Amino acid sequence: MDNNSLQFTLDLPRDHFHISLDQSLTLNGIWGIMGSSGCGKTSLLRCLAGLETGVQGRIICNGRTWLDSEQGIFLPPEQRGIGYIFQEARLFPHLNVMGNLQFARKRANPNQAALSFSHIIQQMGIGHLLERTVDKLSGGEKQRVAIARTLLNAPSLLLMDEPLASLDWSSRLSIMPCLKQIQREFKIPVVFVSHSKEEVARLADNLLLMHQGQVIEKGICRHLLNRLEEQDNSDQPLSALDATVLKHDPHYGLTTIKVDQHRLYAGQLNSHPPGTTVRVVVPASEISLTLEPLKASSIQNCIPVHIASLQEQGHHHVLLSLSLGEQELICQITRKSFDTLKLSAGNTVFACFKASGLEVV
Ligand SMILES: Nc1ncnc2c1ncn2[C@@H]1O[C@H](COP(=O)(O)OP(=O)(O)OP(=O)(O)O)[C@@H](O)[C@H]1O
Description:
361 residues; alpha+beta; 6-stranded mixed sheet; 8 helices; 21 strands; 37% strand; globular; binds adenosine-5'-triphosphate; nucleotide-binding; ATP-binding; cell membrane
């Protein structure tokens, strides 16, 4: 398959190992790349971008050969039609925001339809910053401008190397929906390196997990992320679910969404019309378990689930993987609750969580 595919066979020596990869990715949506520090995530992105000259192998993107070391083909970065977003924004300090954006527009990829200037500015929420000089922007604002600038270049593939890592959590939370929306709307495929499970849960459709220069797992993000063994102690345990918006209730400010066969309430999502597919992130600590359905409670969501598997988390907590049908929900409870309810794998229980416990992106 030529279109929407990125195939690469790469060999790049590093100090203690070789980056050694042989992958074919279908380019739709957002690919997340995760793995421990130093495993080669940035090196992979740099190889794809044409920033690593010592690499051997082949890269074919949408049928175009970017690299074939045997044939002596090495397309320089500017001919690959990619956008590269770094951890730090790298704006031109001598130009204001408008100047930075216009610079990109003039150098737009001629092979790709140009995206509307005003629409990108609106999507990235930077309309009020156009006359500002770069030194008067916050870190989050700089990164928004950097992303807008890259989009104005009309890339056919967006490579992002921890673009949110230098920002505080509230800036990240405000930029992530923009990235998701941009991807949905402009349909530019994205390969996104991140250390943060929280980011990947919100953004990625597919995931590559790397270790020591190799891909050790590849698959649908929520499948890989929702596995109990991935719920280490470095991030808070969570689940990522796919859902469909069913209807809005403006009176109560709630939206009904469907996850597998279950109907759930979330806070109102006016920007997502009924029928839209959305990603839902649920922190494992938001979920309580009961043996009976809740009768009179302020908690809006209470659904029957099967305990698929469980895992101790330290001495005082237990993580449970709860089957919703197709998808799984990770729940964290105390060991005391676990013992009191006498839970074990295979049991049917009720998972209860507030509408506000669901974050929809
Ligand atoms: N130019 C280089 N020459 C040789 N080795 C390098 C070079 N750049 C990075 N390395 C080494 O290659 C390995 C992979 O580095 P890379 O930056 O790709 O990892 P990473 O997974 O992105 O790490 P992090 O998550 O910490 O950013 C590391 O051991 C690093 O020290």
